[in-house]
Design a protein that fits this description.
The protein is an alpha+beta fold and 95 residues long. It has one domain: Orthogonal Bundle (Arc Repressor Mutant, subunit A). The chain is built from four helices and four strands; from the N terminus they run E-E-E-E-H-H-H-H. The strands form two sheets. It has a two-stranded antiparallel sheet with strand order 1-2. A two-stranded antiparallel ribbon has the order 3-4. The longest helix has 13 residues.
Length: 95
């Protein structure tokens, strides 16, 4: 919130300060974890899945919860969409 609607004059022009920071959230241990790290974990889970039985967003939520990262299914879907990763139905290999 501190950097909301704050700008810096740089040689490249006027830039919004929040551009220089990543978003984050607290895990169960009270440590801050960046959304970038969470997205990398989601991407890795999907890359390692069985293409005949891809994991759903709900399954991703449960796996991340075991690592102390609590997210909703909608948040997982949002992050997956931001990374241009299709849903489990679209990822299922056609036999």
């Amino acid at each position: 919130r501190v950097v909301n609607r704050k700008y810096a004059h740089t040689p490249q022009g006027v830039l919004e300060l929040r551009r220089f920071f990543t978003e984050g959230m607290m895990n169960e241990d009270g440590e801050e974890i960046s959304t970038r790290i969470i997205k990398l974990k989601i991407k890795k889970l999907i890359e390692e899945e069985d293409s005949h039985s891809p994991i759903t967003d709900d399954q991703v939520v449960k796996i991340l919860a075991k690592d102390g990262i609590k997210l909703s299914r909608r948040t997982v879907a949002k992050y997956r969409d931001q990374m241009s990763i299709p849903g489990s139905r679209e990822r299922r290999a056609v036999v």
